[in-house]
Specification:
By secondary structure, this protein is an all-alpha fold. It has helices at 3-14, 19-26, 30-37, 45-54, 60-76, 78-95, 101-115, 120-134, 140-160, 166-186, 190-207, 210-224, 231-240, 248-263, 267-283, 299-313, 316-329, 335-351, 355-367, 376-388, 397-405. The longest helix has 21 residues, at 140-160. It starts with a helix and ends with a helix.
Length: 408
């Protein structure tokens, strides 16, 4: 057993916490913590910091981890070997004759970072954050091209790393795989998207990072609400991630769960889940409420979800209030998502008997978007406006126009 493992076990027992309880508090898988205590894996400084904070160890756990690392690096030459492995992997990738130019440049840059003994995991966290900020303002074809290069580099790094950094790299792989899945969904290729969702789930689970797993599951469930998956299965998928905690990832998971419950006709549960989202949103630090990032939880996402839930529940008053709040908060760059909220409004108008007004409103929203922004999710929501129109009235010219505008 390592010094860090011994100290972690002693501090945990002193605090009368089980491994499961500690794992929930620090947002790391409890089985990973058990393996660290037994000396089977080394852990990371992030784990040490989180445990030190939760267990009020005053820096003792961080120092124990650093002493372990110093012993390993000084006596066994592990640090030198790790750097050599990483440099060899990046050098081979950069020199490969068939590699894309962007991939080659990224391989060289990561090789330099490793040679300088830089924070490789931190570098990938920054890359993931950058993709999140770019997601809403970049064509999906451009994003897929960039992702291909970065994922190629990351795959080679994972093949060269067998130490405590592996969990952090796998967490980055999980989130980048989620971005790939979302981009393929937007491109209309559900088959390829499904394979990337599978990879995202697998890498998130293997990483032992509870937050990464929550992000992957949340976005998988949200996407499932648009791709025809069975709503009850989506609720089960959401619940498989465990109870919601705090933060943006948990709010996103609750968002997907609420939408799936509404689709399943379980309206009381859906409304209760929206209330949970409200509580998580109110308690969230400002740093996680980033407006323009896929990994943030801005307030407009709360009201977008509330609009969905109350529209399906047939609560016109609450639906209208939620739509007004969401539309007023959405940034200009996210006009497609704002249009989707307006399509909720259109569906509500149709269900309330205002068929002409509702369909006209839907046509105006879709027609106001460029064709490139009429992605699968928008077409599905517009299709639900048509579904709300009574069968006897679906021959209206405006309904035909809406069908034409949303044709794939």
């Amino acid at each position: 057993m390592s010094e860090f493992g011994q100290e972690l076990r002693a501090r945990r027992r002193q605090a009368a916490l089980s491994l499961r309880k500690l794992g929930g508090l620090v947002h790391y898988d409890w089985s990973l913590l058990g393996r660290i205590e037994r000396g089977e894996v080394r852990g990371s400084e992030d784990v040490a910091r989180s445990c030190d904070h939760v267990l009020h160890a005053g820096g003792t756990l961080i120092e124990a981890y650093r002493r372990d690392r110093a012993v390993r690096d000084g006596q066994s030459g592990d640090a030198i070997m790790r750097r050599r492995n990483m440099l060899a992997a990046m050098g081979a990738l950069a020199a490969a004759p068939a590699v894309a130019e962007l991939t080659g440049w990224e391989a060289l840059r990561h090789g330099l970072t490793s040679a300088a003994d830089g924070d490789v995991v931190g570098e990938w966290r920054d890359i993931v954050a950058g993709y999140g900020r770019d997601y809403y303002g970049q064509p999906h074809s451009t994003m897929l091209s960039r992702l291909r290069g970065d994922l190629d580099v990351l795959a080679h790094q994972l093949a060269a790393v067998e130490d405590e950094r592996r969990g952090g790299l796998l967490a980055a792989a999980a989130q980048l795989s989620t971005l790939a899945a979302l981009a393929w969904v937007a491109a209309g290729d559900q088959s390829t998207a499904a394979r990337w969702w599978s990879t995202a789930r697998r890498t998130a689970t293997e990483s032992g990072d509870a937050t990464a797993r929550t992000w992957v599951t949340g976005w998988d469930v949200i996407t499932g609400c648009y791709d025809g998956r069975e709503p009850g299965a989506l609720v089960e998928l959401a619940d498989s991630a465990g109870p919601a905690r705090s933060g943006a990832a948990s709010a996103g998971l609750l968002c997907g769960r609420a939408q799936a419950l509404a689709l399943a006709g379980r309206h009381a549960e859906a409304v209760a889940t929206v209330r949970q989202m409200e509580a998580v949103t109110e308690a969230m630090p400002a740093s996680e409420a980033e407006v323009t990032s896929l990994w943030g939880w801005p307030e407009h996402r709360l009201w977008h979800t509330a609009s969905w839930v109350h529209t399906y529940a047939g609560d016109s008053r609450r639906a209208g209030e939620s739509q007004d709040r969401a539309v007023s908060l959405y940034p200009e760059a996210q006009r497609r998502l704002r249009a989707q909220v307006e399509l909720h409004r259109a569906a509500g108008l149709v269900r309330d008997g205002h068929v002409s007004e509702g369909v006209r409103h839907a046509v105006a929203q879709v027609d106001g978007l460029p064709a490139a922004e009429r992605v699968t999710s928008l077409r599905v929501v517009a299709g639900r406006v048509i579904e709300a129109v009574p069968l006897a009235e679906r021959r209206r010219p405006q309904v035909a126009e809406l069908r034409e505008l949303t044709a794939a």
